[in-house]
Each structure stands twice: as C-alpha cells, then as structure tokens.
Design brief:
Helix 5 links the parallel strand 5 and strand 6. Strands 1-10-9-8-11-3-2 form a seven-stranded mixed sheet, with helices on both faces. A four-stranded parallel sheet has the order 6-5-4-7, sandwiched between helices. It is an alpha/beta fold.
C-alpha cells in the first residue's frame, strides 16, 4: 500500500495542462429531475457494517451498496444511460421509445459501463456497439448482448478497445460515449459524471452523521471525482477523501505526484474495472482539488477481504471491494498516516455485484 498526500488540495491549478478542462458538475438537481421520470430509479441502500467497523478498529463503517442499482448491478447505471436519456429528451420527441432512432452509440468497456450504454440505447430506440478487449470473459459479452448491444472484440486491453471504438465512431459517424475524457472529448463524459451525483445525494439523506473518511475507488476516476466534488460542496472540508487505485494502475496517484497527467505502467490487475492506465482529465482536475490522499492497493490485499465481505452480506468483486479494503488491510502505521482511529466514521462504496 502506497500513500500519497495531495499537496495541491484545494487548488484547481495543481496539475499542468488542464486549464481548459472543466471541473466536475455538482448540479444534482438536473440529475434528480430526470431520474424522477424513471420508474427503475430507486435509491440503493446504505448499510451499517458493524463487523467491518470492528475489523477496521473504527467507530462506524457505512457501505453504499450499489449492487441493485436500476437492475444493472452497479453504479454505472447512473452514468451512460443518463447521458443517453438527456440526449433523448433534448430531441423534444413525444415518443421517448423512438426518440433516438437512427442513432448509434459506440463505446469500449471492461465491465458495467457497456451495460449502461446498451440499456440506455435500447430504452430510447438507439443502437449500441460495445468494443471489449480479448481478455474480457465471454460471459460478460453475453450480458451485453442480452441488453441489446452488438459486441466487438479489439485489442489486448481496455486502452486498445477504446482506440478501436473511437476509430469506429469517426469512420461511421457514430456517437462515442466514453466514461473517460481527453483533449477534444469532454462533453459526454462530463455529463456522464454528473449522473453519479445521485448516488451521493442519497448518501446525504441516509448517513446519520457526516463521515470522517470517504474511501473512493477509481479507474479513470469518474465516480470518485463526482462523489468528491459533491461531498466537498455539502460537507466542505470535514471528511478526508481517500482515492484508491490498483497498484498496477495508479494513473491518478502518478499524475498527482508528477503534477501532470501521466500514463501508469503496470501489469494486469484482478481489479479489472479499475485497471485503467490513463486518468480522465475531468476527473483528474476535480480530484487534484478535492481529494486529500491517493492510495494504491495490491490485488492480493483486496482479494483477501472478499470472504470477510461475503460473510457480512456484501459479496462483490475485487473492483467493487477496493475502497473497503484499504481500512480493512492497513497496518497500524498506515492507519496513522490516513488519520484512522477508534473515533473514525468511514463511508465506502460497494460499487458492483459479485460475478456469477
């Protein structure tokens, strides 16, 4: 576990080259207004895990459980599908199921993002094409097809499949819907991250008291940055916000250390949904301002807590467990560095359901 304190906390100019990058949205009212029209948009539970609190040696351990989010099994249901819904509403069509007929959305996915694209496209009459890497299990490809997506395999990793999706969008006039952002591609990922605000708005209503620590796992950083931005707007400087990445894919931590967006270089992580080697620029800008600490965690440490979580009724994947694993596996010295102690109140996100 490597712990890096964010020296640029509170500044929007700590990372070079992001002057034209927008910070994450905190317009939660826009999200709630649209979700209010969706019958599947029920809040997910916040669970008080007393056993985890004992294991971590803290006062309380609250877990935002995203496994039932809108029937898609993860927080990603709030992202891409929200973007598609916004674009459908902007057509002004009085037939929502046909609002986006003739439109094709294309993306790359290592997991749940593709399901969200596919679900949103199907609801509003659009087509969805999802590129996946050769390493993605065929079972996940079948789940995408069940949601109506056309699945294409390209490349050995997520970055290669995203390059293929981007090329297909340019060649065919399709709408690229990525959950990451880069120079020249900001509008849809900014809106996608806005959808995640609903998760934190639910937490504000569900938490009995503000936490002292918020643990947010990150791949490209979209969820972490959106959650951190809204947490700061409501809880201000109260909680310590801790961003957690796989040791093999520390793109955000590396960028914070370098003061510029950099590519992580590591092997394949079992935290597959988080195994992203380049950060989203919007997320990097937001987290460089809002996060206090960036932590990396090894695959073995996360895998080691999965039985404990399952016994607590919180079965998930390594990706889903990453944020919870840090306080559960930290040494005494690491807990001290994170400011964790008997009076700490933890909030973490269980981001996805266990794989069958």
């Amino acid at each position: 576990m490597e712990i890096l304190t964010n020296a640029g906390r509170g500044r929007e100019d700590a990372i070079a080259g992001l002057e034209d990058v927008p910070p994450p949205s905190v317009d939660v009212d826009a999200v709630l207004s649209l979700l209010g029209q969706c019958p599947a948009a029920e809040p997910t539970p916040l669970r008080e895990a007393t056993g985890l609190a004992r294991s971590a040696g803290v006062q309380s351990f609250h877990v935002k459980d995203e496994r039932t989010r809108m029937g898609l099994g993860s927080f990603k249901a709030l992202g891409a599908a929200y973007v598609v819904a916004r674009e459908a509403m902007e057509t002004g069509s009085d037939e929502p199921a046909r609002a986006l007929e003739g439109v094709t959305y294309v993306t790359a996915s290592a997991g749940n993002h593709g399901l969200s694209v596919a679900a949103g496209a199907r609801i509003f009459g659009a087509r969805a094409v999802v590129y996946i890497a050769e390493t993605v299990p065929e079972g996940f490809a079948d789940r995408l097809r069940a949601k109506g997506a056309e699945v294409m395999r390209a490349g050995a990793d997520y970055e290669a499949s995203m390059a293929a999706a981007q090329a297909a969008a340019e060649a065919n006039g399709w709408r690229l819907l990525s959950d990451s952002s880069w120079p020249g591609y900001m509008v849809r990922p900014w809106r996608l991250m806005e959808g995640y605000l609903a998760l934190m708005e639910e937490v504000f209503a569900q938490m009995p008291a503000p936490p002292t620590h918020v643990f947010l796992q990150a791949g490209v950083g979209g969820l972490a940055a959106a959650a951190a931005a809204l947490a700061r707007s409501v809880w201000r400087d109260g909680p310590a916000i801790v961003v957690v990445e796989p040791s093999q894919a520390a793109a955000l931590q590396g960028s914070i250390r370098a003061g510029a967006a950099v590519q992580a270089r590591g092997g394949v992580s079992s935290m597959g949904r988080l195994d992203c080697k380049m950060p989203s620029l919007i997320a990097l800008k937001g987290l460089s301002r809002d996060a206090d600490v960036f932590v990396t965690i090894d695959d073995g440490d996360v895998e080691g807590v999965l039985p404990l979580l399952a016994n607590a009724g919180l079965a998930t994947t390594p990706s889903g467990a990453a944020g919870l694993a840090v306080p559960l596996t930290a040494s005494a010295a690491q807990k001290s560095a994170l400011g964790l102690g008997p009076q700490s109140r933890i909030l973490a996100i269980l981001s996805e359901e266990a794989e069958a």
